[in-house]
Amino acid sequence: MDAVRTRVRVDGVDVAYTRAGHGPLLVLAHGAGLDGRMWEPQVEALADEFTVVAWDEPGAGRSGDLPEGFGLEDFADALAGVIEDVGLGPAHVAGLSWGGTVVLELYRRWPYLVRSLLMVDTYAGWKGSLPPEEVAARVKGARRMLAAPREEFDPTLPGLYADGPPERFAPLLDAMNRDVRPETMAAELSLMAEADETDLLPRIAVPTLLLWGELDARSPLGVARAFEEAIPGAELVVIPGVGHMSNVEAPEAFTAAVRAFCRAHA
User: Tell me, what's the pLDDT at 32?
Assistant: First the structure.
């Protein structure tokens, strides 16, 4: 299925997204230091049954630069603008890692745009899901990474994979790394460190899938269990043997779980 690249202007920011397929709308939100290309396996595989949209959040990929002072609510509003631009909502909305925190804020602010939530190896913000000492360690590591000279800047966060990045996706991952804007990553990680969406979880009233890598070292299964306990009726699916980037480490199993869930809640 041929994908179409387009963009929409939301509150003065050009937001790019890729769209493929026909059917119920499935929107995919990427993690920090990445862009919509991370979802290429799912866009290709699921376009036979769904209208699949993978955005480049403001400051990433083909989207415009991140405005100064852009907050979590602004990311959520930009994502809402994409869903409204596509015009097929409400949508199944999936977010991996930082993208999941953005998706939670989308649901808080724009619940009528969300048909179901797919929380993938994510957090209710670092503050909401991790011990304070772990948050402090991550903030320290992020500052060290961002202080490196531009020619030495490496946006790869530790603990993304159970067994290293899959060889077949190495060129794609390298391309995304080269395109990361340090100022965007600084904003993402700073917002993530301060975000706490736990108050929202018991109020979620749409079907929710928790899709987790068994060996996720960045958002361990304990975080998934806390989501499962807090969100009414949430369904947890654990993919064996993979880590934080479960959609590229086990794309077939990941895609099958997404397809089954979205079918069940069409």
Answer: 95
